[in-house]
Amino acid sequence: MPLALLALAIGAFGIGTTEFVIMGVLPQVADDFGVSIPTAGWLVSGYALGVVIGAPLLTVLGTRVSRKKMLMFLMGLFIVGNALSAAAPSFGLMLIGRVIASLAHGAFFGIGSVVAADLVAPEKKASAISLMFMGLTIANIVGVPGGTYIGQVAGWRLTFTLVAALGAVGLLGVAKLVPEQGKPRAGNVRAEFAAFRNVQVWLAMAMTVLGYGGVFAAITYITPMMTQVAGYTEGAVTWLLVLFGVGMFLGNLLGGKFADRALMPMLFTTLAALAAVLLLFTATAHNKVLAAITLTLIGALGFATVPPLQKWVLDQASAAPTLASAANIGAFNLGNALAAWLGGVVIAAGLGYTSPNWVGALLSGTALLLSFLAAFLDRRTRRASDSAPHPQAQRTSTPIGH
Predict the structure, then answer these.
(1) How many structural domains are present in the chain?
(2) Side-chain half-sphere exposure of 118, counting CA atoms within 13 A
(3) Which residues are within 8 A (CB) of 31 and not within 5 positions of it... i.e. 6 or more apart?
(4) 3-state helix vs strand vs coil in the chain, percent to 5
(5) CB-hemisphere CA count at 13 Å for 399?
(6) Which of 20, 115, 23, 132 is nearest to 321 (CA)?
(7) 126: how many CB neighbours lie within 10 A of its CB?
(8) pTM of the prediction?
(9) Which of 254, 108, 118 is nearest to 171 (CA)?
(10) Which residue among 47, 294, 365, 394 is buried most deeply as judged by most CB within 10 Å?
(11) How high is the pLDDT of residue 402?
């Protein structure tokens, strides 16, 4: 494994910790600021929307510097945002801190995906991307449960202080291990935007919004769901998040491995299974053992979609992949914001803490339908390309016989 992939995974670990740890300490934050849990859910939605905005904006602004320098700048932004969240005297300032930290998220993973893919042979690109994202999944095994435990025992402010320190480690890792790749050509910006003329890029991002959004519909409110429905103690949520993280870790590895072999069949399988498991979670959430198993499956199936969706975007925008890759990371978080908001809506409507699971199942099922459409359009495009006369044949006056 190239050491640069390790550096990217370190940065991903810090980013993954701050993205998901808020769910484990959401009740504590809500109590501290005197807001409701659905209102506190805006710390999830606000972060996600910041990723949506920051991904394309900072990626475009970063075209005038090397990818390494841009990754270092993004980690610096991440540190500032988390430090502000830790020290925020009001809910509004904490939300601002979350947004500042989130601006780095999409561009880091978008640029990092391109760097990771360029470090390996073409047939291993999805696996390389999954190795970078492994840092995010490990964060859900170690960083998020650890941060949740610290937040419950010593206060959520210490959690975000330590997250900022993780960002500093990620910054050093990028500085030491990621190679300079030179300054992109100034003309690349227009080419990057041209990639969005491909309808497949938009379909991939729509699948990302709906598919991964289905996971966040359930996970955003996992703490109240597990404590008030399944009957777990608040301290047990830490270990439930470990199980979710283990599922993400395994799903990410399998998603990267099988996406290199059969990308669209992998998407069909994972999206269909994810929708079914989310639907099942409305029932299994009432039983401790079944809830834990289902939560692990949601993590695995949800993150198994990440490498194939990211590789699909890179393939469809191969001439100018950086902006499309970052925009797809933004799409993941647009789905997170949409799902967290919809989950809060159904809870506020009095439908109970399991109602977001219905929302998640509907979102993932819709993503499955879009994957069928994308596969159909891809097959039609390939058939048209295969049936078109070869330029050399058009210039040949007499066909060659057999």
Answers:
(1) 1
(2) 16
(3) none
(4) 85, 0, 15
(5) 5
(6) 115
(7) 28
(8) 0.70
(9) 108
(10) 47
(11) 39
User: Which residue in 185, 216, 211 sits closest to 336, CA to CA?
Assistant: 216
Residue 12 vs residues 6, 79, 378: alpha-carbon distances, Å: 10, 13, 31
State both tokens at 389: 């006369």
* Residues spanned by the domain of 199: 3-178+194-385
pLDDT score of 240: 87
Name the DSSP class of 184.
Answer: P
Token couple for 149: 């435990």
Residue 334 lies in a domain: yes
Tell me the pLDDT tens digit for each residue of 300-340. Answer: 998 888 778 777 777 776 666 667 767 777 777 788 778 87
Q: Tens digit of pLDDT for each residue in 72-111?
A: 899 999 999 999 999 999 999 999 999 999 888 878 887 8
Flag whether 399 is in a domain: no
399 band by pLDDT with thresholds 50, 70 and 90: very low
Q: Report if residue 89 sits inside a domain.
A: yes
Note whether 54 and 104 are within 8 A (CB). Answer: yes
The CB-based long-range contact list for 114-123 (8 Å cut-off, 24+ gap) reads 114/67, 114/314, 114/321, 114/322, 114/325, 115/4, 115/8, 115/67, 115/71, 115/178, 115/181, 116/4, 116/5, 116/8, 117/314, 117/321, 118/181, 119/2, 119/4, 119/5, 120/2, 123/260
pLDDT at 130 exceeding the cut of 70: yes
CA distance 312 to 331: 14
Band the pLDDT of 194: cuts 50, 70, 90: low
Mean pLDDT of 290-299: 92
Could you say which DSSP state residue 229 is in?
A: I
pLDDT, position 71? 85
Torsion sign over Cα 209, 214, 217, 218:
negative
CATH number at residue 302: 1.20.1250.20
pLDDT-derived band at 386, boundaries 50, 70, 90? low
